[in-house]
Design brief:
The complex is a heterodimer of chains A (about 500) and B (about 100). In chain A, α7 packs antiparallel against α15 and α9 crosses α12. Chain A has a single domain, classed as Amidase signature (AS) enzymes (Alpha-Beta Complex), CATH 3.90.1300.10. Chain A has about 500 residues and is of the alpha/beta class. In chain B, α1 crosses α2. Chain B has a two-stranded antiparallel ribbon. Chain B is flat, with a radius of gyration of 23 Å. The longest helix of chain B is centred in the first third of the chain and has 18 residues. With about 100 residues, chain B is mainly α. Chain B contains three helices and two strands. Classes of the chains: A alpha/beta (about 500), B mainly alpha (about 100).
């Protein structure tokens, strides 16, 4: 029998319903796996007591035949989601000791449907990063990192970021699935780096209430799982209208799993010519071509499209996101929660608290944001970036007159080593070159594992869709998943 | 345009982040790298383009003006370093 930690969510639900194992056994198997994989640093806080209690409740429901959609499935929760009574840090020193007195809408919906919380997952500080190296709690190590015969890492690879703990935990079989958030690629890029599935839904699909805010016009929560079907199951629980988020959209949530028919005949797949960026490795280009061939073989029609403002997406993002961050992070002042560092007066207390509480990347972004919003520069930078954002969104609107979905690589490279790309912030930002446009335009985007690099590291393909058409995005992702076939396990679990 | 040390010190003050003088030079360098890179936005023709503030076209919803939450001050201040009688306390502001 498959190890309990290696099951998909769909198979685990079937096994629980058939009484092949209990939710407590399933949860304990994951807690044991977590204990054996501490070297990855995937979790900031483990919650075994919560998990075992939730699992026992699940077993009671199964015994009565009253199980719910995700009943008994052990999940990891990115430590950006506020969880009632459980420390929530956003991987920042400034939130030291913060224990939310409320539950985020997304996690409350997962728990409503019977999910079990294993713990809170590591991330880049305030979700700002693409390598999970800016966490106050230390970097997360990818389970794909090679080891010598003595079991020591010979090179420590990044799991991507910002949802690096989520990605590492799901790939290393420490959780059946995890929540992530995606402001510029923070679900899709780490999913690609560790060989799992991740979907950023349309802006407004999942409530942002109770998620620590980074850039409010871009942030979206989504699932990170090992199969497209699992992503479909988990998204259905996470999504839905919430009156507590003024940007949440009141639309019915479809049965996403039912959309995975494999039938994409006649679907038009846009291939944006501007995504052939300079210096992109040949293996990424090859993987992209392979993806096009797979979809063609399944009856879809590739269409060359143009997204002319693609190269301006990253610079526009690096004005809009820091501007919103500088405003959102103004609340961390040492008064109401988290760290306080005293000073001679109130102002110095603010300045000392924020100097000690924020890490270097967060400070850099707050300062960029403060600058572009300051008197005299607002029009030249912030207003200009918002106008460029409008043109980028317009590119997609026009493209969707010619196609139904868009296929691109998820990231311009495979995972790199911890410590690489550290000196130049822009080299790091370029990781998100293919994922940022969907955030600026608010569109759904999925990363699905499609093969390995020459070095043997996972590579993902990205499927973008029309607003609120996650169903088609998942359907196309499922076709790619089937065509790519079973993917190898990371060395740490194989 | 370039950010000099004095401008970086001013931004740090606006952002309420204490930056030691010895760090200003390096920070100015980092911020300048990013600001020079975003200059390329100047190439985009944005005449007659409305700034995009939200991807959600819908108007904000209204609801009845009624109290829907609250009544638990002890939970509200539970995370404060220094809370007295359900108030947040700060260093003295008024002389």
């Amino acid at each position: 029998m498959t190890k309990l930690t290696h099951l998909t969510m769909a198979d685990a639900l079937a096994g629980l319903a058939a009484k092949e194992f209990t939710a407590v056994e399933l949860t304990q198997a994951h807690l044991d796996a977590m204990a054996a994989a501490k070297e990855l640093n995937a979790f900031i806080v483990e919650t075994p007591d919560v998990a075992l209690k939730q699992a026992a409740d699940s077993d009671a429901r199964y015994a009565k035949g009253e199980q719910r959609a995700l009943d008994g499935l052990p999940l990891g929760i990115k430590d950006l989601f506020c969880t009632e009574g459980v420390q929530t840090t956003a991987a920042s020193h400034i939130l030291d000791g913060f224990v939310p007195p409320y539950e985020s809408t997304v996690t409350s919906q997962l728990f409503r449907d019977g999910a079990v919380m294993l713990g809170k997952l590591n991330l880049d500080e305030f979700a700002m990063g693409s390598a999970n190296i800016t966490s106050h709690y230390g970097p997360v190590i990818s389970p794909w990192s090679p080891k010598d015969e003595a079991g020591n890492f010979t090179r420590k690879l990044v799991p991507g970021g910002s949802s690096g703990g989520s990605a590492a935990a799901v790939a290393a079989r420490l959780a059946l699935g995890a929540t992530g958030t995606d402001t510029g690629g923070s679900i899709r890029q780490p999913a690609s780096f560790v060989g799992i599935v991740g979907i950023k839904p349309t802006y407004g699909r999942c409530s942002r209430w109770g998620i620590v805010a980074f850039a409010s016009s871009l942030d979206q929560a989504g699932p990170m799982t090992r199969t497209v079907k699992d992503a479909a199951l988990m998204l259905r629980s996470m999504a839905g209208y919430d009156p507590k988020d003024s940007t949440s959209i009141d639309l019915p949530v479809p049965d996403y799993a039912a959309a995975l028919t494999g039938d994409i005949r006649g679907l038009r797949v846009g291939i944006p010519k501007e995504y052939r960026v300079d210096g992109m490795p040949a293996e990424i280009e090859k993987l992209w071509q392979q993806g096009i061939e797979w979809l063609k073989a399944a009856g879809a029609t590739p269409v060359e499209i143009s997204l002319p403002h693609t190269k301006y997406a990253l610079p526009a993002y690096y004005i809009v996101a820091p501007a919103e961050a500088s405003s959102n992070l103004a609340r961390y002042d040492g008064v109401r929660f988290g760290l306080r560092v005293e000073g001679k007066d109130l102002k110095e207390m603010y300045e000392n608290t924020r100097a000690e509480g924020f890490g270097a990347e967060v400070k850099r972004r707050i300062m960029i944001g403060t600058y572009v919003l300051s008197a005299g520069y607002y029009d030249a930078y912030y207003l200009k970036a918002q106008k460029v954002r409008a043109r980028i969104a317009e590119d997609f609107t026009k493209a969707y007159e010619q196609c139904d979905v868009i296929l691109t690589p998820t990231a311009p490279s495979a995972a790199f080593g911890i410590g690489e790309k550290m000196d130049d912030p822009i080299a790091m930002y370029l990781n998100d070159v293919f994922t940022v446009p969907a955030n600026l335009a608010g569109l759904p985007g999925l990363s699905v594992p499609a093969g390995l690099s020459g070095e043997g590291l996972p590579l993902g393909l990205q499927v973008l869709g029309r607003p609120f058409d996650e169903a088609t995005v998942l359907k196309v992702g499922h076709v790619i998943e089937q065509a790519a076939g079973p993917q190898p396990l990371p060395p740490i679990v194989s | 345009m370039s950010l000099d040390k004095a401008t970086v010190a001013k931004i740090a003050h606006l952002a309420r982040i204490k930056v030691p003088d010895s760090d200003l030079e390096q920070l100015a360098g980092e911020l300048n790298t990013i600001m020079h890179w975003v200059e390329m936005l100047g190439e985009v023709d944005t005449q007659n383009v409305e700034p995009m503030t939200s991807v959600v076209a819908a108007n904000l919803r209204r609801r009845p003006d009624a109290v829907t939450d609250g009544g638990y001050p002890e939970k509200v201040v539970a995370n404060a370093t220094d809370a007295t009688e359900n108030f947040f306390s700060v260093p003295k502001v008024v002389e």
